[in-house]
Amino acid sequence: MVLKLDECEVCPHRCKVNRIKNQVGRCGSKDTVKIALVSTHEFEEPCISGENGSGTVFFSNCNLNCVFCQNYEISQEGVGREIKVPELADIFLNQQEKNIENINLVTPTSYVPQIIEAINIARKKGLSVPIVYNTNGYENVETLAMLEGFVDIYLPDFKYFSNDLAKKYSKVDNYFEVVTLALKEMHRQVGKSVFDERGVMKKRNDNKTFNTSKAG
Predict the structure, then answer these.
(1) Measured between alpha carbons, how far is 202 from 200 in angstroms, rounded to an integer?
(2) What whole-number distance in Å separates Cα of residue 38 and Cα of residue 105?
(3) What is the dihedral angle through the alpha carbons of 200, 185, 127, 135, rounded to the nearest 10 degrees?
(4) Predicted confidence band of residue 104 (pLDDT cuts 50, 70, 90)
(5) Does residue 153 contact residue 133 with C-beta atoms inside 8 Å?
(6) For residue range 61-89, what is the model confidence (pLDDT) as tens digits?
(7) Burial (CB count <10 Å: 0-12, 13-18, 19+), residue 133
(8) Nearest to 181 by CA among 210, 123, 151, 140
(9) pTM of this structure
(10) 32-190 adopts what CATH topology?
(11) Rounded Cα gap, residues 187 and 184, in angstroms
């Protein structure tokens, strides 16, 4: 399967817009990658940030509309700049050069096809640190399946047990059912967490052969 943006079904909204022709999806995204912030984050969960910090890449826009979002300007107002996939690959490599613990993709859902391509490019140039997929959890299982072999650590939110509350505060349908299936797929891919001697999460197998066939 190849994730296409001409009738976008990357996330559970399945809005089918043609992002390649600059149509904007429910998430607010087009075919270009848009990022708001690249930083070394030392205050994430300790098992993610460790001693050297997590190499965060904050993506603009979001497929939820949470009224309580602490990054509202990024997620709802789309603050950020558009970049091409090769630049995203370079960002990953530049983060690795800072001796960070991992690459932390924050709210990456809308850009999964481009992220896969960027990881492929970066790995061919030496990217080796773990990839963290930091998500709101509102994901399509088939989209997550495309990330197998590319993501080492899933860091999902589970915001609501009640679909009514999800509709009221994040403007999404069937949240509980969607996220439950997504969590099962994440666990299927990576299994139980693996930690190094410092208590920092790491790849399950550092000698793993990564899938490089899904970048289309």
Answers:
(1) 6
(2) 10
(3) -70
(4) very high
(5) yes
(6) 999 999 999 898 999 888 999 999 999 99
(7) buried
(8) 140
(9) 0.90
(10) TIM Barrel (3.20.20)
(11) 5
Where b means 16+ CB within 10 Å and e means fewer, 37-73 reads eebbbeebeebbbbeebbbbbbbbbbbbbbeebebee
129-145: pLDDT as tens digits? 999 999 999 999 999 99
> What DSSP letter does each residue of the chain carry, written as one string?
----TTTT-SSTT-----GGGT---TTS--SSEEEEEEEEESSS-HHHHTTT-EEEEEES--S---TT-TTHHHHTS--SEEE-HHHHHHHHHHHHHTT-S-EEEES-GGGHHHHHHHHHHHHHTT--S-EEEEE-S---HHHHHHTTTT-SEEEE----S-HHHHHHHH--SSHHHHHHHHHHHHHHHH-S--B-TTS-B--S-TTPPPP-S---
Structural domain boundaries in the chain: 32-190
Beta bridge partners of 40: 55
How far is Cα 61 from Cα 3, in angstroms, rounded to an integer? 19
The tokens describing 187, both together, are: 């666990």
Classify residue 8 by burial, with Cβ atoms within 10 Å: 0-12, 13-18, 19+.
buried
Averaged pLDDT, 175-199: 95
Contact 27, 172 (CB under 8 A): no
Confidence class for position 2, pLDDT limits 50, 70, 90: low
